[in-house]
Amino acid sequence: MHPPLTLHRHPMCAEIIEQFQKCHLNHPIKKFFGECTDLKIKLDRCFREEKAVKRKANFEESKKLRARLQAYRKETADNP
Q1: Contact 62, 21 (CB under 8 A)
Q2: What whole-number distance in Å separates Cα of residue 55 and Cα of residue 19?
Q3: pLDDT tens for residues 57-78?
Q4: With a threshold of 0.70, does the pTM exceed it?
Q5: By its UniProt entry, which PROSITE patterns does this protein fall under (predicted)?
């Protein structure tokens, strides 16, 4: 199962999403028998890469926030 295939939410995978949707439109019966499977595999890989990039960015942001919070706690502990 994949997330909703909206292009604005998945800019890294936009080209593959378009190809996958065209494949489903062009092959309404064959899609059930594996016609679009290769594109589905590419799409899943792209979503995994996209998620890894987002996870890394969120981790870096959390490190910055943690450092700011520790600095704030230290500052407030020094000035009662």
Answers
A1: no
A2: 26
A3: 999 999 999 999 999 998 888 8
A4: yes
A5: CHCH
